[in-house]
Amino acid sequence: MGFLTLEGVSKVYGGLAAVRDVDLAVARGEFVSLLGPSGCGKTTTLQMIAGLVEPTAGRIGLDGRDITREKPNRRGLGVVFQSYALFPHMTVAENVAFGLEMRKVPRAERDRRVAEMLALVHLANLAERYPRQLSGGQRQRVAIARALVIAPPVLLLDEPLSNLDAKLREEMQFELRRIQRSVGTTTIMVTHDQAEALSISDRVVVMEAGRMTQIDAPYRLYEQPATAFISTFVGKMNRLAGVWGDGGVAVAGTVLASAPADVAAGTAVTAWIRPEKLHLRPMGEGRLAGRVASRFFLGGHWLLTVGTEAGDILVSVPNTGEEPAREGEPIGLDWEPASLRVEAGAGAAA
Amino acid sequence: MQKNGPVALLFHALVVAFVLAPLVVICLVAFTPENTLTMPTTAFSLRWFRAVFEHPDFVTAFGNSLWLATIAASISVAIAVPAGLAIDRYRFPGRDALNGLFLSPLIIPHLVLGVAFLRLFALIGATGSFAWLVLSHVIIVTPYVLRLVLAALSGLDRSAEQAAMTLGASRFTVFRRVTAPMILPGISGGWLIAFINSFDELTMSIFVTSPATVTLPVRMYMYATESIDPMMAAVSALMIALTALAMLALDRVFGLDKILVGEK
C-alpha cells in the first residue's frame, strides 16, 4: 500500500487525453521521477497530484485519505515550480514564511523555522534579499525552502533544474538529493532529462503519450528497458535491424548473436546494445569488423562512431590515458553475448 | 540595442519640440507682467498666479475637479480590477461583449456622450448632481484603467498564484497577498491616467456640470469665451505642474516604462 497513490487517473482536454489511466504507488520517503519528452503528460500528472488540475477520472490517495477533489490549499503539499514562482515583492525570508503565515504559526516559531530552512539550503545570509537580486540557483533553493518549510507530506518538483546551466544543474542534483535525504520527504520530480532522473531517483516512471510505460529503479530501467522508446530515450543505445535465422540473429549477413528468441526463423528482429558494452579489438578479431568514422573525447571516456555492415555503431571507450583507434582506422568489435538484447519486430523506436 | 542615425535623432528632436513647445510657451506667458498674452521679456511677475487665487470661483472649480477626479479614478479602479481579472482569466459567454462594452467610451465622441448624459440626467432629474457627474466620469475613464490592468495581468506569472495556493492561501488571500501587489504598478498607473483624464475633461463636462458642480476646465472655458488674459496661462501652468508632479511620482515609485510598455 503506497503512501501516495494514483488509481486509474486520467485527464482529458477537449477530447484529447493528456494522461490516460495512470496507476502509481509511491512509498513514504521515496524519491520518484516522472520522466518523458514534452507533451507526455508528466506535468499534468504532477499538477493533478498538487490539485491545480482536476482529474477527469480516477482517484488520488494520500496516506489512506482520498484527496482527488480536495482544493490545493487544503492538501498541504509542497510544490516547486519550473519558473520557481517566487513572490517578487517579498524578501527571501518572507517568501519562505508565507506558508507558515497561512497556517497561523506564531511569529517566534515562524522565524525559527524559516531560519532553520534557510540554513538547510545555505541561504541564511540572503534572507533579506529580494528574488530579483538572486542568481538562478539561489532562487531555486528559495523555492525548495518555501515548499519544505511547511513540512509537507509530499514534495512535488516540476522540472526544478531545467533553468540552470549544466554545471549548476549537476551541483543542484546532489544538493536536492542531500536536502531530500536529510528531511526525508516523499518526493516526486518531473523531468525530461534522463540523466537527472537516473542520478537522483529511487525509482523512475517513464511516461509516453499519457501512459506510464515503465516504473523501475534507475539501473533496471537502463539495463532492461520495457519499450523501444525507453531504450533510446534513456541513455545511448545502438539499434540493429536483423533477421532471426539459422544459428542466431543475422544482421546484414553476419551472425551476431545466438540469444534465444521466441520467434520463428526468418522473422525480422531488432538487436539492442549499449555503447559501453562494446569493446574495441584489433582488426580481424571480435564479432564484427568496422572502421572508425568519428571520435569524440568526453573526458571520462571516448565516444566512437564505427561504420560496420550493420550500420553505424556508437562505442564508448573508457579513458585509460591512451588514445584509442584513430579516425579511419579499421578495427573489430566484440561484446558479451548477454549484453545484446534481441526482440521480435522491426523495433520502431520513437 | 540599435543606435539611431542622425536623421532619426533630428526627427525625434522635432517631434519632442513640437509636443513640448506649446506647454513651454504657456508656462512662460503665465509669468508675464503685461495685460496681454505676451512672452515676458524684461520682467517676470507672479501677478496672474495671484489673480487665480483671487477668483474664488476658480478655487472652488479646482476643488470640484480634484474631488471629481479622485473619486472617479478610484471607482473606476474598483470596477476595472475585477473586470480585468474576469476578462483575463475566464472564457465565458459575453466575454468579448463585456470587453467591448468597457472600451466603448473610448470610441464614442465625448460630445455625443455629453448630449446623451444631459438628456438622461434631465429625464431622471439628476441635473446638477455631483454623484451623477462622478458616474459620467467613471464611464469615460474606466477604459484606461482596464487597459492597464489587463496589460499587467497578461504579464503576470500565474504560477506565483498557484504557489501561494499550494502553500495554503485561500483565493481571496492569493489576490490580496500575491496578485494585487504584483499588478500594483498597472493599477496605480491606471488610477493616475484616469485621474488626469477626468481632471482634464471638458467636452462632456460642459453638458453635465451645473454652476454648483462646475469643474476647472469648464470654468476656464467659460472665462476664455469672455476674455483672454494671462490668468488663463497661469491656470494652465498650474495644471501642467500638477500633472507633471503626479507623473514624476509614479515614475519614481514604479517606473513609467514598466507601467505603460509592460513588464521587462
TrEMBL record, chain A:
GO-annotated biological processes: quaternary ammonium group transport
InterPro entries: AAA+_ATPase, ABC_SmlMolc_Importer, ABC_transporter-like_ATP-bd, ABC_transporter-like_CS, Mo/tungstate-bd_C_term_dom, P-loop_NTPase, Transp-assoc_OB_typ2
UniProt record similarity statement: Belongs to the ABC transporter superfamily.
GO molecular function: ATP binding; ATP hydrolysis activity; transmembrane transporter activity
PANTHER family linked to this entry: SPERMIDINE/PUTRESCINE IMPORT ATP-BINDING PROTEIN POTA, SPERMIDINE_PUTRESCINE IMPORT ATP-BINDING PROTEIN POTA
Keyword Transferase applies: no
Keyword Transport attributed: yes
GO cellular component assignments: ATP-binding cassette (ABC) transporter complex
Keywords, comma-separated and alphabetical: ATP-binding, Nucleotide-binding, Transport
Domain ABC transporter: 4-234
Name the record gives this protein: Fe3+/spermidine/putrescine ABC transporter ATP-binding protein
UniProtKB/TrEMBL annotation, chain B:
Keyword Transmembrane in annotation: yes
Key words of the record: Cell inner membrane, Cell membrane, Membrane, Transmembrane, Transmembrane helix, Transport
One cellular-component annotation, GO: plasma membrane
Superkingdom classification of source: Bacteria
Domain ABC transmembrane type-1 positions: 62-251
Name of the protein this chain belongs to: Putative spermidine/putrescine transport system permease protein
Membrane topology: Multi-pass membrane protein
Main location: membrane
Pfam families: BPD_transp_1
Keyword hit for Amino-acid biosynthesis: no
Species of the source: Chelatococcus caeni
Localization per Swiss-Prot or TrEMBL: Cell inner membrane; Cell membrane
Family according to the record: Belongs to the binding-protein-dependent transport system permease family.
Gene Ontology biological-process entries: transmembrane transport
Residues spanning the membrane: 7-31, 66-87, 99-124, 130-153, 174-196, 231-250
